[in-house]
Amino acid sequence: MNTFDSLRSWGTNLLRGEQVILRPVQPTDTSVLAAWWNDTGEAILQQDRIAPRPTHHAESLFDSWSSNESPGGFGYAIEDQQENLVGHITAWGLGLPVRIATLGIVIGPEYQDHGYGRDAMTVALRLLFEEMGANKVELRAWEYNARALALYSSLGFVEEGRRRAATLHRSKFYDQVELGMLREEYAARGER
């Protein structure tokens, strides 16, 4: 395959995984994403406090995360092979000289435990490291979100530190775990 065909194939498949495709957020997506964001059972996994926002405010958050106007990040809807909206993934903060991006993901409650999060993260890591030139990708999770921490670890993220007692639920403080993956750690995984 010549360079032209190789790069065309790369571009065609860049936002595709085995189970998902990352695509621009559509106006009809934001109400679903906002409902997931405001679901208190899900909010406790994503946010430092449970405080549902007015729907229009939560929709505006997803719109701003998904504008794709900054060269230092992206925001995409996650769609399965049947064209169902299953989540949202966003990266921000990628810039010179250190080229570190922060990654965040939301998977709808009814779509969890089907491999969509893993596949979307794999696509996002490929995009960040191989197309956007990231040297490091960071993310955070609450210490009680064992499922997310296990996923991130299995993808090759390494715990780098903790923000101790960073959130409070049911009168107990919990740490926020900070994880990272360097370019060479990504390359050593051998996945593309």
Automatic annotation (TrEMBL):
Pfam families: Acetyltransf_3 (PF13302). Residues 20-180 form the N-acetyltransferase domain. Keywords: Transferase. One of its GO terms (molecular function) is acyltransferase activity, transferring groups other than amino-acyl groups. CDD domains: NAT_SF (cd04301). Signal peptide: none annotated. This is Acetyltransferase (GNAT) family protein. It comes from Corynebacterium oculi.
